[in-house]
Design brief:
globular, 6-stranded mixed sheet
Length: 502
């Protein structure tokens, strides 16, 4: 599989695109006002302990209190917390005495999920520091090796090195890119992480909550650290300073990758040159066309994301069952890619085209599961039900791409629909009825959106004339494009004041 990374830098944002076999599969966007937060370490203060929710809310200095579930409380708190029971099999932790987690308690935490909508950051007390080859886990004794390293001999070798170089009181996770690296390289990475941890400890002793203790790498740097692996064919960027920084970093940790770094010096913008811009536009669309002529619909709600598979313009030559299978198999591949690209997390429901044969439903399920293996985010899926529905959850770390590139529509409030012209006219009529019962004035000015103004005054027998005859009141219609389509204002013609609260 051909894997490429492209980086576009501008004054307002940095965009990182990852392509697999020429197809855009992941896109990361970082802006000065919306910097990457995952990995940041804070000294916070417990605001509220909700035993019924098995969670606590912690003030870390952001607009919203961060959410700390009891399962995200680490093995030890040291002076910042309570005794913890750690289950190595499940990888979860259980607070032994929840009463030891109390309001106004100082607690060292790390962000594991960024805030989204009205939800604050999700945090953990299981602090970890990621390097190029290793992840240092202070105050724990665990030692792990990446599951992506399949050789048992290599795993044994790496564990032996880790035991030799590891300091007491620390745990260690060996990353995929450590495969084949010698002891000297791994020790240098560990020493760098230990130095960073000592700085954190010194800062914590002097700090007062809430305060930022350690800022993790920015997005571009973390992408280079985590994703620029030997299987990447090339990395292309359009910023000379960034190219220089990347090469300097790689010379220290992975000199064999330096030659894969290229500077984009063409006149055409980098994302246009490699046809990435068009793919980004498609990724934001509600409707996505597939090669077969079928299409996908993506709808975001507060609780979940619904994806609908439709046959569209597909003209199959086989029976309905086989045609449905063909479209659903293609949809499974495209949906898996779109989930990565859009970075959709949480609960997802997919409505596939109905298939009667359970074997065909199993084929689509297996295809989708196979495609999800390419995804770094953890996902759990259920088989397709008799109703053609597949339910799944996908790990959410950052807000979906939709929230990075767009804002809620101020007119429709996110529903995608606005009041019909007839509904607005009915509201205006009801307003006039109420006005007539309270006031004797017979001359008004009505300010409305231009679309409504045209609808009210469309012809000789216009709606507004009918209203004037019916209520025996003179109304002058004024088009005002500053108003929303379902807004209107009435003013007195005598003294020009606005009539409110009618």
């Amino acid at each position: 599989m051909k894997k490429e990374i492209f980086i576009n830098s501008s004054i307002s944002e940095t965009r990182i695109a990852i392509l697999e076999d020429g197809k855009l599969v992941e896109l990361f966007v970082e802006r000065p006002e919306n910097e990457r937060m995952v990995g940041d370490i804070y000294l916070g203060k417990v605001v509220n302990v909700m035993k019924g929710m098995q969670a606590a809310f912690v003030d870390i200095g952001q607009g919203q209190d961060a959410f700390l579930h009891f399962s995200d409380i680490g093995e030890t708190f040291r002076e910042y917390g309570a005794g913890i029971d750690y289950d190595e099999d499940s990888g979860r932790s259980t607070l032994l005495d929840k009463d030891l987690l109390r309001e106004n308690q100082e607690i060292l935490v790390q962000i594991i999920k960024e805030p989204i909508n009205s939800k604050g950051s999700r945090i953990t007390t299981e602090i970890s520091l990621a390097g190029r080859f290793l992840v240092l886990v202070p105050n724990q004794t665990l030692m792990g090796v990446s599951k992506k390293i399949t050789s048992h001999r290599e795993k044994r070798r790496l564990r032996k090195i880790a035991r030799t170089i590891l300091h007491e009181g620390f745990g260690l996770i060996i990353r995929t890119v450590a495969e084949g690296k010698d002891q000297g390289t791994l020790k240098a990475d560990l020493d760098s992480l230990l130095k960073a941890w000592k700085k954190i400890e010194k800062k914590v002793q002097k700090a007062r909550p809430p305060t930022l203790i350690h800022k993790d790498m920015g997005m571009a740097s973390s992408i280079i650290r985590d994703l620029f692996t030997p299987d990447v064919t090339r990395l292309v960027a359009d910023s000379r300073p960034m190219i220089r920084d990347i090469k300097n970093y790689l010379k220290e940790v992975a000199p064999q990758l330096v030659d894969k770094v290229e500077f984009h010096n063409q006149k055409m913008p980098i994302f246009d040159h490699f046809y990435i811009e068009l793919e980004i536009e498609k990724s934001l669309a509600r409707k996505i066309w597939m090669k077969s002529g079928g299409y996908l619909i993506f709808d975001h709600t507060e609780a979940l994301v619904a994806i609908d598979v439709n046959s569209g313009r597909f003209m199959g030559r086989k029976n309905h069952e086989q045609n449905s299978l063909k479209i659903n198999l293609e949809a499974a591949r495209d949906i898996a890619r779109q989930l990565r690209l859009r970075d959709i997390g949480g609960i997802i429901v997919i409505d596939f085209i109905d298939m009667q044969d359970p074997k065909n439903r199993k084929k689509v399920y297996d295809e989708f599961k196979r495609e999800l293996r390419k995804d770094r985010a953890q996902a759990n899926i259920t088989p397709i039900s008799d109703f053609g529905l597949m339910q799944m959850t996908r790990e959410r770390v950052r807000p979906s791409l939709l929230f990075s590139f767009s804002e809620q529509c101020p007119t429709c409030g996110g529903t995608g629909r606005v009041a019909s012209k007839s509904s607005v006219v009915t509201k205006i009529e009801r307003w006039i009825k109420r006005f007539k019962t309270r006031h004797k004035e017979r001359s008004l000015k009505l300010y409305v959106h231009p679309e409504i103004a045209r609808h009210l005054t469309a012809n000789i027998k216009s709606i507004i004339k009918k209203m004037m005859w019916r209520f025996w009141i003179k109304i002058e219609v004024v088009a005002d494009d500053s108003l929303q389509i379902d807004d209107f204002k009435f003013f007195s013609k005598k003294n020009q004041h606005e009539w409110k609260d009618i």
